[in-house]
Specification:
Two copies of one chain form a homodimer. Chain A is of the alpha/beta class and 371 residues long. Chain A has helices at 16-33, 47-54, 64-72, 89-97, 109-122, 146-155, 175-198, 211-216, 236-240, 273-276, 341-345, and strands at 11-15, 37-40, 59-61, 77-83, 101-106, 128-132, 159-164, 205-209, 225-228, 251-261, 266-269, 292-296, 301-310, 315-319, 333-337, 350-354, 363-366. Chain A folds into two domains: 45-228, Alanine racemase (TIM Barrel); 244-366, D-serine dehydratase-like domain (Lyase, Ornithine Decarboxylase, Chain A, domain 1, Beta Barrel).
C-alpha cells in the first residue's frame, strides 16, 4: 500500500473526504435554487474529480486542450469560457464534428463575424455565448450596450445566450458584499437576456458563476446555469473571503524538511514555488498567509507555522509571530495548504488521493495540462 | 514551414540568436577568469539548450527528475544542488550505479550521517558538497562554523567539497553591489575550503554561482566551478538589476488579442498566468514591469505597453503612463517578455525556436518537468 510516506516529495495531495463535502455543499445549495451546475474543470483538470461531481455532466473549460481531454472521456456538453480567438475555430469544429456541443464565448462583432463566416464555410452551427461584463473585472460588454443586440443579430442561429463572471467577487470580503456580488451577477446576466429578448432574439442560455457567487447566491431566477470550479478544492484565498474555512481545503502539497536555520527561525523544505506556484493571492487580504499554511502529513494544521518564502525548489517555513518554530527534524514530511488551488494544482501532473487524516493513498488521479 | 503564426497560442518562444549570444557572453567571461561553468539546467530543463552550452558537460540540477532526464541524454557529471532528503538516496544510488557522478548537497550532521550510513550499506561512494551560507539567503552554514569540519569528518570519503549560492545577488541593484556580492560569494566559499583544509580534510570542489555573480565576478581564485542557469534566457528581473538588457531576453510567450476594453484602456489576450506564471519578481524593483513587457510577434518591443493583469487564461495589457493602448485588432499575435524565465518556462512543455526577428520556427525543443 502506498502511503503519503512513499513517493518522493514534493507532490500534490487531495483529501477526498473534503472534496466530496465541498461538492455536496454546492450541489445542495444550487438544488435549493433550482439551477444546474456547470462545473469548471480548470481547477482540477481531472476527469476523476469531474466524475465525482457528475459523470458526463455539463462542464466549463479554460482551454481547448481541456475540451479535447474531457471529450475523450465522454463529456459532450462543454463551454469554452475564454473569448474565442478565430485561429482556434478549426479545433472547435473538430469537437463539434465529434458530436460534442462545444459552446464558445465572444464579446465583439469581429469575433461574431469570423465565427459566422467560419460556420458558414464549414456548414456547421457553432454555438456562441455573448460575454457580458458585470463588475469591470475582465472582458464583456454592458447589458445595455447596443453592441449586445448587434452581436446577437450577427450571430444568427449561432447565438446561444449570454454569460457573465463576477471576477471581482474574489475581493468581496463580507457576507453582504458576497451576496451583493452574486445578486448583481444574476441581475446583469438577466438584463442582458432581456435586451436580446426585447430585440426579438433568442437567449436560451443565461450562464453565471464564480465560486464565491455560486455559494452566496440566494436567488437565481432567470439564470439557466451556474459555473464554479475552485470550490472542489477551495484554498486560502477562498477561506480569506469567508466562502469556506481552512478545514475545507482539499488540496495540499506534501514536502519534506531538508534543513534548519535556527539563527533565522527558519525550517527549509524541498517544496519551493515550483511545487506551490508563485501565487500569493492572500497578500492583498486581511491575513497574509505567505505561500501557505503548514500541516502535519495527516493534514492537521500546525499552529503559528507558515511558508514565508520560496525559491524554485526550496520552501522557507517560519512563524507569523515571534514563536520559535517547532522541532521538525530533517526528513519530516509536512503538507502546505496553498493560496490558490488552480495555480498550485497546475504545477503537478497527478494527485495522491487520501481520505481525511489517513495516510494511505487510495488512488492516483492524473491531471491534464497545456493548451 | 511552421511559423509563429501557426500553433494556437499561448506557447513559449526561444530566440536562438539571443540564447547563443547569452551563452557566448558568459563562456567568454568565465574563460577569462579561468573557471569552468557548471550550467544549471533548472531554467530551461532542455537537453537542446544544454547542448548549445556544452554537450555532455557538467550540469547542475534542481530535481532528481532533471538528473535522470539528463542522464538519459548522456550527461555524466551532475550536481543536485538542493539539500538532500535522505528518502531520495535510493534514486541517487541508481544514478551512481548507472555511471553518473551524481553529487549531492547537505548542511547538517543528520544528513551526513544518513548519507554515510546509506553509502556504507550500498557499498557505494556518494559524493557530497557541504552547503555554505554567504548571504543569509537560504540554507548553508558559515565557513567558520565548527559544524563545517564536523560534517566534513562525518562524510569521510564522501566529502567532495563546498558549495555556496549568492541568492541575495538578485537584489543587488548596482554594478558595485553585484561585484561585492560576487567577491563575497567567492571569499566565503574559499574560506570554507580553507577551514576544511586546515582540519586536514580534502576539498577538491569549491562551487559558487548565480547568474548575477557569475557575470559580475572579476576574480575567482580558489574556485573550481561557477554555476549559472537563468542567463541562457535572462528575464526582466535580471534586466532590472542590470545584468542584461531587455534586448537579451531569449524567452517569451506568444499570445493573441481576444478582446478590448476601451473604457479601461485594456487589451485582453489569451495568455494569462497559466502561460506566464504568477511570478512578479519586478514588483520589488525600481521599475515594476507588471507581468511583462509586450513585443510584436517578431520580438520588437511595443513602447508603453505592459501586461498589467492576469487571470488563469486571460492577460490584460495596458500602458504604464496615460498613453492610449495601440490599435491591435482581435487575432493580433504578440509576445510577452516575462519577469522570471525559470517560472515562465515551467508553465510550458516545449519551446518554439526562432532566430532573431524571423517568424519561422526552426525547431521545437521539449522541456522536462516534475520531480
Amino acid at each position: 500500500m502506498t502511503t503519503l510516506d512513499t513517493p518522493d516529495t514534493p507532490f500534490a495531495v487531495v483529501d477526498a473526504d473534503r472534496l466530496d463535502r465541498n461538492i455536496a455543499r454546492l450541489r445542495d445549495h444550487l438544488d435549493q435554487l433550482g439551477v444546474p451546475l456547470r462545473l469548471h474543470v480548470k481547477t482540477s483538470k481531472s476527469v476523476e474529480v469531474a466524475e465525482r461531481v457528475q459523470a458526463g455532466g455539463p462542464i466549463t473549460v479554460s482551454t481547448l486542450a481541456e475540451a479535447e481531454h474531457f471529450a475523450d472521456a465522454g463529456y459532450r456538453d462543454i463551454l469554452y469560457a475564454v473569448g474565442i480567438d478565430p485561429h482556434k475555430l478549426p479545433r472547435v469544429a473538430a469537437l463539434l464534428h465529434r458530436g460534442v456541443t462545444l459552446t464558445v464565448l465572444l464579446d465583439s462583432l469581429t469575433q461574431a463575424e469570423s465565427l459566422v463566416s467560419f460556420a458558414h464555410n464549414e456548414n456547421l452551427r457553432v454555438p456562441a455565448l455573448i460575454e457580458v461584463d458585470c463588475d469591470g473585472h475582465r472582458g464583456g460588454i454592458a447589458p445595455t450596450d447596443p453592441a449586445l443586440v448587434e452581436i446577437g443579430r450577427a450571430l444568427g442561429d449561432c447565438l446561444a445566450g449570454v454569460l457573465t463572471h463576477a471576477g471581482e467577487s474574489y475581493f468581496a470580503y463580507t457576507p453582504d458584499a458576497l451576496r451583493k456580488s452574486a445578486s448583481n451577477e444574476r441581475d446583469i446576466a438577466v438584463a442582458a437576456a432581456d435586451s436580446l429578448h426585447s430585440a426579438g432574439l433568442p437567449c436560451p442560455i443565461v450562464s453565471v458563476g464564480s465560486t464565491p457567487t455560486a455559494h452566496a447566491a440566494t436567488d437565481l431566477t432567470g439564470v439557466t446555469e451556474a459555473r464554479a470550479g475552485n470550490y472542489v478544492f477551495f484554498d486560502l484565498v477562498m477561506a480569506g473571503i469567508g466562502v469556506c474555512t481552512t478545514d475545507d481545503l482539499a488540496l495540499s502539497v506534501a514536502v519534506t524538511v531538508i534543513g534548519h536555520r535556527p539563527d533565522k527561525n527558519w525550517i527549509l523544505t524541498d517544496g519551493g514555488w515550483m511545487a506551490t506556484s508563485r501565487d500569493r493571492g492572500t497578500q492583498v487580504q486581511a491575513v497574509d498567509q505567505g505561500y501557505g499554511l503548514v500541516a502535519n502529513l495527516d493534514g492537521t494544521l500546525i499552529p503559528h507555522l507558515i511558508m514565508t518564502g520560496a525559491s524554485q525548489e526550496h520552501g522557507v517555513l517560519s512563524t507569523r509571530d515571534s514563536e520559535p518554530v517547532p522541532d521538525l527534524p530533517i526528513g519530516t514530511r509536512l503538507r502546505i495548504l496553498p493560496n490558490h488551488a488552480c495555480a498550485t494544482a497546475a504545477q503537478h501532473d497527478r494527485y495522491h488521493v487520501v481520505s481525511g487524516t489517513k495516510l494511505d493513498v487510495d488512488e492516483t488521479w492524473t491531471r491534464h495540462r497545456g493548451w
